[in-house]
Amino acid sequence: MSMDLTAGPDLSGLIDATELHRYAEELLVHLVADGTAPKPAPGVTDVPGYWLAPAIDALIQIIDGEDALDALTRAARHDEGKTALFLCLALALAGQGDRVHASWLATAFGDLAADRPVLPGQRAVWVAAARGAYGPAGKIFVLRRLDAVANPHECEPERWLKALLPGEPKVVIPPSLLDFPELAELPALQRPAYAADRLARLRARCTEITSPRKPADPPAHPPTGWRGSGMWPETEPLEVLRSLINPSAHTGPLSSLNDHLLEDLQPNSDPRLAALALHVAAPVIRQAAEELAAATRAMPPAEVTVPIMGHPITLRPDGPDPDSIMEAESRIRARAVPPEPYPTWLPQALIGVAVVLLGLSFALTLWLALLAVLAGGGAGLLLLRRRRREEAEAALVGKQLSELRELADRAVFALHEYARESTRRAEAAERDLAELCRLLRRGPRAA
């Protein structure tokens, strides 16, 4: 069982350690600034029974290249775990992580378990080792501890993919279906295209994580340290050091091992942490990649039904389904006859009125003949407008029917192109899978 080494110390029975804590805070400032450890004022470290006082003496002696065995023995006698954690993190902060003994790392890291949260001290050593504070040996030590305990299969593969590839598009439209986005949204056609796109971006992300990075400006201290990386402020190791030397300081909330790994795989995380996380999660990522590659090999369906001009049309390799085309044409024709703006019987009624008025004009007055002409003219005008409207509607219907058939034929051609594209897509997915597996086998770069 691993103990939380960052828990506040019990200072009951000790003389006032305020000056020691104040000096320790000042020591951290100097370590961050230039990697030096100023000597404390006389009597500051004279706090009997408290591990921090001899631990600071040991740190100063190690940085100065002196023999620190006596101070180490006294500090370990009071609290071996906190002493080891303090020295591991403080020496990393000073850029002298290469002076950390392997036994100190083992003691500071403690026992890791998949069913328990990662303690702040464990995470701090993990982060420091990933960033190269203890050299290749320290990185390998932490990596082996993570490999021995982590079980990435406890999380759904989808969580790992979303950590690596946040902000994915909801729909991927292949080039062959750019003119028919409705086709691209059909699940049977969308799944292979989406899987291929996702696999390609997964390979690119893994390539980014595992690729060598351009070295930063030469640090002022040995390259195994963190000095000059600009990554120390507000990181877990510095927070843990403050919690070790100051009983009132608190570290952040605890997270599980898989939660830390998922966080480290995010695009905005430290690439060195991402490299370790990728290696630990490699089995489940490889499995997810294989499933994506298999999805790209799905054969296009024998037929699909897609809305064209608002009508469901069934498309097959040999052409649009005649029945669905005929049904769509019938709906277009039925929808194309608008209601008359006046009663349909009105022209006929006006013609009848004109005939009656014309007959009466011979018996009564010729003025009725004029009214008959007006009624007949009105009827003729209404009939002419109806004829022109019917001709315009017929032309529009003909245009829509022609457009419907043309779009259906083009959609069938797009499906043929999609089928040819499927072969190339599956081949590209196989290449992406092979490259991805090669990257995962390489593991994180130790140097």
UniProtKB/TrEMBL annotation:
Transmembrane segments: 351-384
Keyword Membrane: yes
Keyword annotations: Membrane, Transmembrane, Transmembrane helix
Region named Disordered: 210-233
Full protein name: Uncharacterized protein
Organism this protein belongs to: Thermopolyspora flexuosa
Lineage: Bacteria, Bacillati, Actinomycetota, Actinomycetes, Streptosporangiales
